[in-house]
Amino acid sequence: MQKIIILDFGSQTTQLIGRRVRELDTFCEILPYNKFPTVEADLQSGSIIGVILSGSPYSVHDPEAFKVDLAQFVGKVPVLGICYGAQLISHTMGGKVEKADSREYGRAHLQTVDTTNPLFRGFEQHSQVWMSHGDTITAIPDGFHCIASTKDVKYAAFSLTPGPSPIGEGSIYTMRQQQGKSLSTPLSNRRGAGGEAGGAGVAGGSVGSSPIVVDLHASELLDTTAGMTASDILNYQLDVFRRTLKNYEKKKGTKIVFIHGKGEGVLRKALVNELQYRYKSYIYQDASFQEYGYGATQVTIK
């Protein structure tokens, strides 16, 4: 079975990354950063069609930072680095990662984006992104080129092409894009080493099966909320909610469970308001208490 390997460096969004990959009908495995398969046959046979390096609470300069031997897969299969993953690629391969002059958190927009690059195909100029970082990439390795920038981050995304090369994706968190799902597509649709179409696998949450589950807790969506106001966090959660409904708007009958927690009910009230005025045709109800406990709403696409 062909699959994408996600190496987890301690990011709080690793499970979300895996979920998004599976929503693209691509099988993936989440492994600890130091447990990449050592069987060379897996790479040679084309069963591994890509590798994703997650974010991390560490800086690449921390003595205790998690490290991996990139030579195990770089140059053999496509590689996507997310935040720490991109910084690790740059730092290891001759680029430079430094402490940012100003920590960047919350909403930002791409000022430049190379939409001819497969990573950003279908993106709009000035796409909204979400930032959460203290380090920044100030120089990329030889042979790489910049494919996206924000106002404050020159190397928001960088790439090495052509061929099965490492694709570094800098301070932009892949799953925090307005068009985040399309960012994963080049990996899930890439041809493997054997030249066969990749991506055939087991997908979670398909229409007609169990409901798709989206956890809207800030701790599940963001590595950190430092520097973000309560309004920023709520707007981000609503962006994820709207983006999810947009992704499934043509799949009638799909059931999506949004886990929002009870708390003071601010998020749930905001979701109900959206459903009553923006998504009037959709049916919503409290999700099963037995399966999801308090604080979950099920939406059926109509």
Q: Summary?
A:
The chain has about 300 residues and is α/β, with parallel strands linked by helices. Helices cover about 25% and strands about 25% of the residues. The protein has helices spanning about 15-25, 40-45, 85-90, 180-190, 220, 230-245, 265-275, 290, and strands spanning about 5-10, 30, 50-55, 80, 95-115, 130-140, 145-150, 155-160, 165-170, 210-215, 255-260, 285, 295-300.
Q: Give the number of helices.
A: 8
Strand order of the largest sheet: 2-1-3-4-9-8-7-5-6
Percent helix, as a range, is 10-25%
Globally, the shape reads: globular
This entry's quaternary arrangement is single chain
The sequence of SSEs as H and E is: EHEHEEHEEEEEHEHHEHEHE
The CATH class assignment of the largest domain is: Alpha Beta
Counting helices, strands and paired strands, the structural category is alpha/beta
**Record field, number of beta strands:** 13
Radius of gyration: 19 Å
CATH superfamily (homologous) name of the largest domain? Class I glutamine amidotransferase (GATase) domain
The whole-number mean of residue pLDDT values reads: 77
Termini separation comes to: 34 Å
Under CATH, the topology of the largest domain can be stated as: Rossmann fold
Give the CATH architecture of the largest domain: 3-Layer(aba) Sandwich
**Whole-number tally of structural domains:** 2
Runs in which pLDDT lies below 50 for 5 or more consecutive residues are: 163-180, 190-208
Q: Could you describe the largest sheet, including whether it forms a barrel?
A: 9 strands, mixed
